[in-house]
Amino acid sequence: MSWFGGAPPPPPPPPPADEEGLLSSFRRTIGLAPPPPPPPASKLDSVMGMVGLGPRREPTLMDEFNEATTLSYKNRLYGFGICLAVSILFFFLSVLFIYILLFAAFGVFYTIGNLCLLGSSFFLIGPTRQLKMMFKPIRLIATIIYLGALGMTLFVAIYTKSALLVLICVIIQICAIVWYVASYLPFAQTLLKKCCGACADSITSV
Q: Where is it located (predicted)?
């Protein structure tokens, strides 16, 4: 009984089923309610799951790529060593071509050496992880410039055979790979920016 002698107000009616379902779904979406329990599995599903015959999800394209490129640790070391040795050989030959002033051959052999060196990192780290590391935002520009310079060096060396253009493309390769490696070292890119700025100021002041 209330203070004024009247009957207490009736409690509010429960929300409709649809409204309650929407509210629960919203609370689960914002993390204020636990997810609904999964439907109970039958005894047959439980037994099949225990023996590995239960339902399996469809493999994604990345799953198939990882499975196709998965090697043992020993084979990865073999691949890394072979690619590294081939890259060193091509770098050595490219230096010889500079000595005899064959710049087109130098550009081709130097670029192939870089490609083999890149392939060695794929064997050592794994292709998926290496690609993710290469295309992180901090390395994206350097990666695109580096890969573009590799392609341009081969194109210029094979089709135009211009010594000047080959040297320019190789210099771009070197600058891009230095900037790429610097992204793994703390404050290295900042230091490179300051060094390049100081060099530019000294050149313009002459």
A: Membrane
